[in-house]
Amino acid sequence: MAWMDVLQTAGPDMLGTNRWTVLAIVGLLVLGAVARSAAMVLSPRLVRAVMRLPRTSNALHSSHRSLGTAAAAGVILLGLQRIHTMTQNGSDVADLPDLGALTMIAVVQLVLVVSLVRAAFRAVDVVQDVMDLLDDDDELDGSERTVISAVESVLRFIILFIGGVFVADAFGLELTSLIAGLGISGLALALAAKDTISNFFGAVTVLMDRPFRVGDWVVVGGTEGEVVEINLRTTILRTSSDTIVTVPNANLVNMAVENYGKRRWRRWQTTLHLDLASDPQAVSDFCDKVISAVRDNERTLNEDASWCAVEGISAQSIDVAINLYWDINSSVAEREAREDLMLDIVRISRELKLEFHDARVRQSR
After folding, report:
1. Which are the contacts of 361, defined by CB distance < 8 A and separation ≥ 6?
2. Beta-bridge partner residues of 224
3. Which one, of 353, 356, 345, 355, lies nearest residue 293 by Cα?
């Protein structure tokens, strides 16, 4: 008999019980407290002894209170079910009416499920530890981080779904009958969940088509930033101002996404301003040596399209333009390569005794 059925037929005489049953319930509460304390003390030690994975160990260690509460609820639940069974079998010792028994069982089962769901949520970090073990180069790339983000989102959804099923079971609700009986309410619920469903399929599309991955720098609808997470409902971007932008996955399917992370090369253009009094031959030699340094650099490509030449002469300086293409995938590596090349350019200018334009120096002459 389910708790909901008993509640409908509850009468004033259904809460009566005997003192042995009360003592048994008090004893269960004491045993539950002992089990909770033991689980809170032992679970971190077992985790440290068995698990050598840092994130998983920390996650399980931080969930020791939830595990302790689950242990207490499990002990009390088993005891209450035993008392209820004895009562139904006509025992002279146990006397716990259906309303009281099933109410307490439902509440304790709810506490058990919620505690396990909280602990399971924190244990989702095991996904990244598993990827670390499977990774050969000890460094997770964008694709691997995308997989981690997706799997963690799916696991959290599964945990919530299973938790909801057990909560419904705790109160004696049959999911099939509940869903079938929703009628118009079910239609309204489906319409309300339309955006959530669209975002879910948007996430599936993003993961299958892979227009970007975690770590890519993208522009979405005027928002520019690095992809931090790809979840079942949203994709999270971190902008250059270090702010977080949450983009619904359904929007990503219906708008253009510009992905800087998929560039085959990175073009770099700059203009150098040499002093107007510079020797023309030295300037010509400077251009030749700079383009030679560019073409000899192992981190550049498109040598035929790269150049260094005098672009113009102003009233203050001789303007030398540089155009090149980096064979680099990350912004960090590009900054490092650009720094090395600019320092080489400074060395070349000093070898040829060339000076860069400085308005203060020109005015003092």
Report:
1. 275, 355
2. 219
3. 345
- d(CA 229, CA 214) in angstroms, rounded, equals 6
Give the DSSP letter string of 225-240.
Answer: EEEEEE-SSEEEEE-T
Structure confidence at residue 15 (pLDDT): 45
20/163 Cα distance (integer angstroms): 34
What are the structural domains, with CATH classification, of the chain?
Answer: 3-181 (no CATH), 211-262 (2.30.30.60), 266-364 (3.30.70.100)
Q: Could you read off the pLDDT of 172-205 as tens digits, one per residue?
A: 666 565 555 555 555 555 555 556 666 666 666 7
- In this structure, are residues 324 and 294 in contact, taking their beta carbons and an 8 Å threshold? yes
Distant-in-sequence, close-in-space partners of 286: CB < 8 Å, separation ≥ 6 = 274, 320, 348, 349, 352, 354
Question: Which helix or strand (DSSP H or E) is residue 341 part of?
Answer: helix 331-351
Which has the closest alpha carbon to 153: 212, 210, 207? 207
pTM of the complete model: 0.48
Per 3-state DSSP, what percentage of the chain is helix, strand, and coil (rounded to 5)? 60, 15, 25
Residue 178, pLDDT score: 55
Place of tokens 């079938």: 180
Please list, residue by residue across 213-239, b when 16 or more beta carbons sit within 10 angstroms of its beta carbon and e when fewer do. Answer: bbbbbbebeeeebbbebbbbbbbbbee
Tokens of 141: 């790339």
Name the residue among 59, 61, 65 with its Cα closest to residue 40: 65
SS3 of 171-226: the string is CCCCHHHHHHCCCHHHHHHHHHCHHHHHHHHHHHHHHHHCCCCCCCEEEECCEEEE
How many angstroms separate the CA atoms of 146 and 211, rounded? 12
Please state, in angstroms and rounded to a whole number, the distance separating the CA atoms of residues 277 and 294: 26
The full DSSP string for 112-164 is HHHHHHHHHHHGGGHHHHHHHHH-SSSS--HHHHHHHHHHHHHHHHHHHHHHH
Left, alpha or beta for 132 (phi > 0: left; psi -120 to 50: alpha)? Answer: alpha
Least confident interval from 80-94, 166-180, 214-228: 166-180
**Both tokens of residue 355?**
């000076």
Q: What is the pLDDT of residues 12-51, one digit of tens each?
A: 444 456 667 777 778 888 888 888 888 877 776 766 655 5
Question: Which of 108-112, 227-231, 318-322 holds the top average pLDDT?
Answer: 318-322
